[in-house]
Design a protein that fits this description.
This is STAS domain-containing protein. The protein is mainly α. The chain has five helices and no strands.
Amino acid sequence: MMTTNDVAKVFDTVLSIPSMNDVVKIDLKISRKNVLLLNHVIERGLSAKDNDKPSILMTSIQEENLQELKLLGEECLQKAGLIELSEKLSVLGDTIK
């Protein structure tokens, strides 16, 4: 059985492979609905509550990489023309809580 520390070391090793920082181009065609959902999942994953236990992978990722993910979600929204809709849905969701 692997310990939490062992798993963190494995993730760190995988993320340290030299080619892992190489930029790749992805030609992605997805529906606007899935763009909204993708951005929501990214935001939710990056803003985990204090009572949510973050995964070992999330705790081993540098802040810079997390910011890149956030920017990716925002870029997808912009390209799909959904920034304003996403903001309004976010405000609506906040009023329900």
